[in-house]
Amino acid sequence: MRIDAQTLTSWLTDGEELALLDAREQGVFFQSHLFHAACVPLSTLELDLPRLVPRQTVRLVWCDDGAAGPGSGGIADRAAAKATELGYTNVHVLDGGNVAWTEAGGELYSGVNVPSKAFGEFVEHTYGTPRIPAAELQSMLDDGTNMVVLDSRPIEEFRRMSIPTGVDCPGAELVHRIKEMAPDPDTLVVVNCAGRTRSIIGTQSLINAGLENKVVALENGTMGWELAGLQVDRGNDIHAPDPTEGSRQWSETAVAAVADRFRVPTIDAAQMDAWGAAPERTTYLLDVRTPEEFRDGHVRGSTNAPGGQLVQATDEYVATRNARLVLIDDNQVRATMTASWLQQLGWGDAVVLAGGIEGHDLETGPTPRTRVPGAATITVSALADAMAGDSPPTVLDIGTSLKYRQRGHIPGAWWGVRSRLDQARAAIGDVSHLVITSSDGQLAKLALGEAAEQWPEAEIQALAGGTKSWRHAEQPMEPGFTNPTTDADDVWYKPYDHEDGVPEQHMQDYLTWEIALVEKIERDPTVQFEAYPA
């Protein structure tokens, strides 16, 4: 069913559940999209949709750029058909896509994680979050000032680049661990991230929790640091320690006041189970602890969404607006801090599970992935033998262009996008034996049927375990972007992912974009953030 822009506007503001999804590849989505749209590319729809939109009867609206024109079939129509095949029963398409939205007076946004990024700018603008320029911080480090630099990003990002003397302490971990890092109230606390959002939210979290120390955000994060001509560290693996009993007591007392100020409700296990069983509402169970803690034991049915990342990139964890979000940890500190931000972001039903994981029948391991049906596969060893033979198979890699380019690929492999296999067919031509690979092989298995439509006479297989298994078997890897079949706009390239030799310009463009968001959302009636009095 098609809907117009006026109907979508009313749905965005009626308080009922709605999943607004953009079916284009992330790199295309990055250029221009609706504020509330979550990116669920057609290429990975079967893997992403059940996790992001778990209730199949929810109002579901697909959109795209509208290039096909009103009433014409585009990528949003293909996504809607696929969602219907998966069992979703209330599926709609925005007629005319982005074009119709702008013609009706709607705003479009560039970038990714836009609601969270815009919210970070709103927080700084609303609360006057203090910050420190890179040059001033460097001078204080040189002078031996009593301070601690806490990096609010996940450890993987921290290892890539960090501020000298920095310690990793992601988002929601800050209040949980701060007393281990700064027991002296005279210690200056500096919070940084790569750009702006997580340092602003992290700094304001410590302030909201009533920390006695002076707390400031590093202005523009590691990007601002490098743009100031200063050197970052690389490969560091220093993270804040687990809290001792005294630190836990302080943080638990602190978040009680935060819960009161930001009206963060709690529910018990019985209420959580009742919500989960209710067919008319969507309930997400989100464990906001570290991935390591989650793997060691978590409430059944919950998924890992570390608190800082959940606030920083909410649309990558939940895509049903006005759903219920049950936040889970061990002592309610991280869950309460996360819920306080989600409440302000507009998630009015963000609640904390009282008592956390205590008393629950826990399961271990990472969040399970969407199951992919069995398919015709070839092992790494069999592929290696075949490639050494007289008639080697053609290999098509449909993993991300970023991994193909930077982490290497099977020698001679073409690169393509699953939703554009027609372009791959045109570039590669006729083949007798085609092996499709992806990062872990799951996406490749999903693509076999579509590939058979393009190469009906070929033997087609998916590489078991994907390119990761090939690499782990210590098979040869080829670097570079050697055999593309389409544009490399499948994913968003972060400022430091570009290989054009001008990273400084990409960093500056990114920071300029972030800062401009607060002015842009003031013109958008569908955006409502809530400010709380001090």
Could you name the key traits of this structure?
534 residues; Oxidized Rhodanese, domain 1; 5-stranded parallel β-sheet; 23 helices; 22 strands; 39% helix; globular
Work out the strand percent. 5-15%
Q: Strand arrangement, largest sheet?
A: 1-5-4-2-3
Query: What is the domain tally?
Result: 4
CATH topology of the largest domain: Oxidized Rhodanese, domain 1
CATH class of the largest domain: Alpha Beta
Strand segment count? 22
Report the helical percentage. 25-40%
Ranges where pLDDT stays below 50 over 5 or more residues in a row are none
Provide a quick synopsis of the model.
By secondary structure, the protein is of the alpha/beta class. It has a five-stranded parallel β-sheet.
What would your notes on this structure say?
It is globular and about 70 Å long. It folds into 4 domains: 2-112, Oxidized Rhodanese, domain 1; 118-256, Oxidized Rhodanese, domain 1 (3-Layer(aba) Sandwich); 259-362, Oxidized Rhodanese, domain 1, CATH 3.40.250.10; 377-472, Rhodanese-like domain (Oxidized Rhodanese, domain 1, 3-Layer(aba) Sandwich). With 534 residues, it is an alpha/beta fold. The chain starts with a strand and ends in a 13-residue tail after the last helix. The mean pLDDT is 96. Helix 9 crosses helix 12 (245-261). Strands 1-5-4-2-3 form a 5-stranded parallel beta sheet. A 5-stranded parallel beta sheet has the order 6-10-9-7-8. A 5-stranded parallel beta sheet has the order 11-16-15-12-14.
